Amino acid sequence: MTKNLTCFVVCLFVSWMVAAQKRAYEHINDLSYLEQADESGDAYRSERCKLDVYYPKDTLNTSAIVWFHGGGLEFGEKHIPYGLREKGVIVVTVNYRLYPKVQHPSYIEDAAAAVAWTFQNIEKYNGNPKKIFVTGHSAGGYLASMVGLDTTYLAKHDIDADDIAGLIPFSGHTITHFTVRKEMGIAGTRPLIDRYAPLYHVRQDAPPILLITGNRELELLGRYEENAYFYRMMKVVGHPDIELMELDGYGHDMVYPAIPLLLDFVVQRSKEPQQ
């Protein structure tokens, strides 16, 4: 189901601002998420495979949001999106290797390693490994979807992708990413669905999913439509918990108005089951 959400987003944001309690937060920078000391001698890998953890110091059992930056898999830096600070959640923001210094699937493997690190370490930062949500914008949304849908990447770290509490790609490819296609000599206007496409991994037992895009007329070429097709195929296979939201009035640069929707999704999927 698609929704025009401008007023709804504003109301959600206001409610979050009112409800937010004043807490002490700590921001730890540039932690390596490599599983062990990197002995490969790859200086670029050691430089890029870092993450930050931003967390409330006085709460326990806290939900964590893993955020992957956008930039077409070619540029970008880890950051905490405006609107995610001081919201009572942990934010794990990740750098990963970029094209042309690496090619696929290196950046997907990096994303999986960062998510695995989060599962293995989040309790040190007052987090709950059962409440880890994976998200990102554009290329970051694509990485979130790939890590959560193709179970092989996390399985290499002995993590079950289905233990992710939710996937929330912001305006992410569901077909094979255009940079992956460029690496294969395929034009950006020629769609492809192979094992590097989230659509290739449609399955009933995937984590809960919230797809958010900008308005279909303002988005990058076909971005809303490919998300709509992914949504439909997930419904066809019987996935029980997926939503598609289209932000009226916004194009590809739709992070800020989508943040309250992300936070609401995290709250709803983090509720303890009733006894």
From TrEMBL:
Keywords: Hydrolase, Signal. GO terms for molecular function: hydrolase activity. Residues 1-19 form the signal peptide. The keyword Disulfide bond does not apply. SUPFAM superfamilies: alpha/beta-Hydrolases. It holds the Pfam family BD-FAE. Residues 51-152 form the BD-FAE-like domain. InterPro entries: AB_hydrolase_fold, BD-FAE-like_dom, GDXG_lipolytic_enzyme. PANTHER family: AB HYDROLASE SUPERFAMILY PROTEIN C4A8.06C, CARBOXYLESTERASE. This is Alpha/beta hydrolase.
